[in-house]
Design a protein that fits this description.
Helix content is about 20%, strand content about 20%. With about 80 residues, it is an alpha+beta fold. It binds zinc ion (ZN).
């Protein structure tokens, strides 16, 4: 990030998304865009294809240690 402009993860100007009609999750136009938003929001999410063969990719919380609060982000990634 060198442009000095940091759009909100909810309304990124570079990344198009919409709500999944099946599950209501955010659906990103590209896997790349989803990963980018994932990084901006903490990097704790998984990117996976949208439901029922729809176009796009979902961002979902990882199962396991992070979700259950047994480890924190700093445990896994070092000090913020
Ligand atoms: Zn869905």
């Amino acid at each position: 990030m060198t442009r000095g402009y940091n759009p909100s993860p909810e309304h990124p100007t570079y990344n198009k998304w919409w709500r999944c009609q099946d599950c209501g999750k955010r659906t990103f136009e590209s896997r790349k865009g989803a990963k980018r938003v994932n990084r901006m929001t903490g990097g704790n999410m998984n990117v996976y294809p949208a439901c029922n063969g729809q176009d796009g990719f979902h961002l979902g919380h990882l199962p396991g240690v992070i979700k259950h609060g047994q480890k924190t982000r700093s445990d896994l990634y070092g000090a913020a």
